[in-house]
Write a structure and sequence with these properties.
By secondary structure, the protein is of the alpha/beta class. It has five helices and five strands, in the order βαβββααβαα. Strands 2-1-4-3-5 form a five-stranded parallel β-sheet, covered by helices on one side. Helix 1 (51-57) links the parallel strand 1 and strand 2. It is globular.
């Protein structure tokens, strides 16, 4: 077998190569609201994705991979399920069901709530919503008064576009209060982002060394 085809040793927790393990930034965090992350298949091996770090850090978090959900993937256990998604009119479509209003009494009992989070780009998450009738039937939670995102390593198309980890933490703060409880996880995310920035800078530097720019004839 060619050496290039030998799989690299993988961390059994974060499922990344040991050389790129993110477990050092895992911050075990207690919370009342159950979290269900629906991850687009193209995000599973995305090195810049934050869902795995979120999943490993939250005490009550489940991660399911898929693009279209014809039936609910959450149990009928009496919990109130809501979708973390903007309530902007820009996300309407002729065949998209208008979501029900979030009952005002639901946030009064965080332990009875289940928050569904879509992990994907804005385009992918919209497609997941359009292709999944059960998601369209859920009341939505929109985030308010957001701080600037620290997710510098992926392109955003608006100031309110956050990483999956940031959005979920701010949603839990909004539903549960106690923002200080989630700060260690956000700090761990900052370390993760800084690591990826440094790794990207090193790769760029190596590329420039191996592929130097041609000189201009006649000048030293």
């Amino acid at each position: 077998m060619s050496a290039a085809l030998v799989p690299r040793p993988q961390c059994t927790a974060c499922l990344r190569p040991l050389s790129a393990c993110i477990c050092r930034w895992v911050a075990p965090t207690a919370h009342a609201v159950e979290v269900l992350v629906l991850q687009h298949p193209l995000e599973v091996h995305q090195a810049k994705g934050s869902a795995r770090l979120l999943h490993l850090s939250l005490a009550h978090c489940r991660l399911v991979v898929g693009e279209a959900f014809a039936a609910p993937v959450w149990p009928a256990d009496g919990k109130h399920t809501l979708l973390l998604y903007p309530d902007s009119l820009q996300d309407t479509a002729p065949d998209l069901r208008v979501p029900p209003l979030l009952p005002p009494e639901w946030p009064q009992a965080p332990s009875c709530l289940r928050l569904v989070v879509l992990d994907g780009t804005w385009r992918k998450s919209r497609k997941m919503l359009y292709q999944s009738p059960p998601l369209q039937q859920l009341p939505r939670l929109a985030l308010r008064n957001l701080p600037p995102s620290h997710y510098r390593i992926r392109k955003a198309h608006g100031p309110d576009q956050l990483s999956t980890l940031e959005a979920t933490c701010y949603a839990l703060c909004q539903l549960e209060g106690g923002a200080a409880r989630f700060q260690p996880l956000l700090d761990g995310f900052d370390g993760f982002v800084e690591y990826l920035e440094q790794a990207g800078g090193q790769r760029n530097a190596q590329t420039e060394k191996s592929c130097p720019r041609p000189g201009v004839a006649g000048f030293i």
